[in-house]
Every structure is written in C-alpha cells, then in structure tokens.
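Spend some time on this chain, tokens included, and walk me through the fold:

. . .
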Amino acid sequence: MKKKVIVIGAGPGGLTSAMLLQNKGYDVVVYEKKPYIGGRNSKITLGEYNFDMGPTFFLMKNVLESVFEKTGRKLSDYAELISIDPMYRLSFSKEKEFFPSIDRNKIRNEIKRVFPGNEDGYDLYLKKESKKYKELIPCLEIPYGSIKDFFKKRFLTSLPYLDAHVSLYDVLGRYFKDSDLKTSFTFQAKYIGMSPWEAPGTFSIISYIEHGEGIYHVKGGLNQLTQKMAQVLEEDGGNIFINREVKKIIIENGIAKGVELADGSKDYADYVIINADFAHAMTNIVDEKHKKKYTKDKLDKMAYSCSTFMLYLGVNKEYKDVPHHSIIFSEDYKSNVEDITIRKVLTEDPSIYVQNASISDKSLAPDGKSTLYILVPVPNNTSNINWENEKNKLRDTILNKLETRGYPELRKHIEVEKMITPFDWENEMDVYKGATFNLGHNISQMLIFRPHNEFEEFKNCYLVGGGTHPGSGLPTIYQSGIISADLILKRDGKI
C-alpha cells in the first residue's frame, strides 16, 4: 500500500519534495492556503502586465534540472531559459556605472575601464572562489541532524574554505582594493537578506555562482518554474488543493499524524512536510504544547533577514537604454545597509533594484510597453515602522531617484501599479516579521544550528524552504526539498 505524504504549502521547496516523492510511488497531497501556487515564487497580474512576485532571476539551474531528471524529464522541455548578459547594470552615480558580463574577457576589460588597477584581482578571485565553491557546495547537499555531521569527511575537507570567521566584505578585500568594486561582488548578500559587513565570508560563493555559471530569466517569469513543477506532480498523479488552509498539524505521542484544515476536516498521512514560512508555521499551526525548542520566546530571540518594499509598475513605454537588471546604489551604501540591519530606520537615499524584464521577454507586457519590478531592501517588522504613514513617501523617493537614473518621466508612463510593504508581507503573505528572506544566515543559524530538515520537535515531520538547511534563495530551497525527500526515501529503503 502506498504511503501518504501531506505537504503544507505549494512553494518551490514543497513542490520539489512532492515531485520526487510522487514519482517514487508515494501518494502526495499538497494543501495551499492561497488561491494560487508558488508562494513568493508566484505571479502577479495587473491588467495586461505580468510580474514575478518574488525571485526574478535563476541561478544554479543544475539543481532544478536534477529534480526534473529524477522524475524522468528535462527542465528544458517545460521552461525556456534566457541567459542575461550583461548580468546587471551597477550604478554608483550618474557618471560611474559598471556592467558585469558572463564573458570573462569582457568583464576583465570592464573592470579595467571602471576600476583601473583591479583587473588582476578578478583572475585571483576566479581561481580562489572556484576552489571554494567546489569544496562548499557538497556541504549544502546533505542534511545536518547532529553534531556528528560536522565530523564527516566532506565537511572536514571544506573547513579551510568556510571563511565563517570573516565577513563577506573582508573576503572580497583579498581580491580588490576599490570599495565600489568590492560592493559589486558583495551586494549579493541581499539575496539572503543580510549586510555584506555582517554576512559570513562563506557567502562569497554566491557572486562566484553568478560569474561562473551566469544568471537566467525564465520566459513568462520565474513563476513559470513552480507552475511547471506543479504540472509534473499532477502528471504523476499527485494532488494540489488551493484555498485549503491548514489550521494545525495533528500530533499524537510526539508523532505528526496529519493535518486539520480550516474547515474542520482532517487528513491523515505517514509524513508531513512543512513548506510554510518556518516561524509563521511554528506560531500558527503547531500548538505550543508540542514545542520544546522553537517556542514563541525562542522564535522572538532568533535573527531574521531584512524585508523588502516592492513596486510593480506597468508602463506604456519601453526603456531600451537600460538592461534587464539594474542596481542603483545609495551614495553611502554602508550607511544605507546599517540603516536597514542595525538602526532599522528608513534611509533618505535607498538602494534600488529594478528589473526591466520586457527588454528580454516580450510576453510580459503589450507591444511598446514594459513591466518594471522595483525592490528596495528595508528593515523587517521588528523596526516598528508605520508603513501606512511611510509607504507613499518612500514611493515618491524611489520614483524621484529612478527618474534621474535611467527611467526619465517614469511617473507619467505608469498605467498600473501594485505596492507590497513589510506589513503586507507579514499580514497578507504570512511572512513572519515581514522578513522576506526568512531566518538570518549568521553562523549561529546555519547547518546544524538551523531548523533541521528532519524536524527535531516531533517525528515524521520534515521541513523545506528558506527556514531550514541549506537556507534562503531558490537553488537552496530546491536543495532543501531534495534533502527532505531523500530522507524519507532512505527511511523507507527506496534509495
């Protein structure tokens, strides 16, 4: 008889586990609270314009390719990937802009043009970081359930490359002298919601992944990845139910037995996989009496990532002179980051990420028009910022800056618009404290110190998503889904 698995949440991590387990003969049921699938990897439609809600570019495509391959399929048969080059426009001022390329000769010349005297450092960067990448990536592909896992060979051999004792910014100081160039290779700390001056040096591999493997857009938006994952699950006989909220996990004698839904019905299973935001799930669908480690007090003391302020603009103009991705830095980037992560206040000069995806993908907007996705890192909701009072002022600050940095007369071209504040992330999207990138990625909350894939609070329960190992970001979230599925398969002797 088939064993049954219930997955709470149809985000990318949950769908990864669901795909793999359904294909291996389990009976998988996914319950999704929202009327759509994908979680933060879903689609926003405003009239004739389509946007990604969250992630806007694709790294480490080999991870998701392996998931499809394990089900006997090819990702390329389901999604069209578009390589983005230049990878982005990094704008430090009106006069100083840097365009990193996946072509190593081009970027070396670009470094020489913008940051003369630093070009040899790029060769050293590639040499050292490629070795670090090869040593560290295997450590992210296995679970960490006990202190014994730190004594396994693959972890021990990685120790000289871990750089856990230094900051990401300091690691880049080994290669480059110019502060703006170091910023160009460390701003990626924002992908995990941290400061480059606080993030462990371990995360220098993120920028290396971009420079070593390139970055990709998915035609139709990255939301298409979760749509196709759901398609594969259903092709193999799995079931996804939207608008079905899980009220609580049924736990008996320290064992997860199933779920109780908001309508009062109950569904039982052999295993439960939690794909909801970790701290939100612990607060809302797990009774306090079943928690020893992750109590409300413990959750409040944990470190959380920053949040994001979002604008989704449909405009009746094409911005052909700016590339697919742009980052417009504040004049004092370090102070801007400290406002977000330490002082937890809104800055007068924010750094802004803009995706001008229509320049690469004409399917997102009508002819002659564009979608502009705008993201500004801001403090999470431990800041007590009153977003009802501040949101329109911040919107004006952002538009004022963009109109002088590549998007002239932007306001008059806006046809449709949507805004998401940290308050909305928490209260409408169920993101604890509005921390868009989940739990912080400081050393005390990584590997064994992060909530385990095989959940330690009660048996027969597994975690996927940014709140468990390996961490936040699409590739690592997919990896969490692989790890949890493999743990179940190994337990049942299927691999």
Observations:
- The CA atoms of residues 102 and 214 lie 6 Å apart.
- The chain has three domains: 4-81+220-302+440-491, 108-214, 306-427.
- The chain has a mean pLDDT of 96.
